[in-house]
Amino acid sequence: MRRLMPISAFVIVLLSVSPALADVTWQPLGALSTGAGPAIQPQVAVGASGDSVYVWRRSDGGTDCSGSPCDRIQTRSRSAAGVLSSIQTLSPTGQNASSPQVAVDTNGDAVFVWQRSDGTNSRIQARVRTAAGVLGPTLTLSAAGQDADYPQVAMDPNGNAVFVWQRFDGTQERIQARALSAAGVRSATQTLSAADQDAEHPQVGVDANGNAVFAWDSADGTTQRIQARARSAAGTLAARQTLVASQFASDVHLAVDPSGDAVFAWIGYDGTVSRIQFRARSASGALGSLQTLSDPGKNANQPRVGIDLGGNAVIMWQRFDLANVVQIRARSAAGTLSPTQDLAGTTGTSTGVNAQLAVDPQGNAIAVWEDREGTAFCCMNVLGRVRSADGTLGATQALSTAGKDAQEPSVAVDPNGNAFAVWHEATNASTPDQRIYAGVGAY
Question: Is the pTM of this model over 0.85?
Answer without folding.
Answer: yes
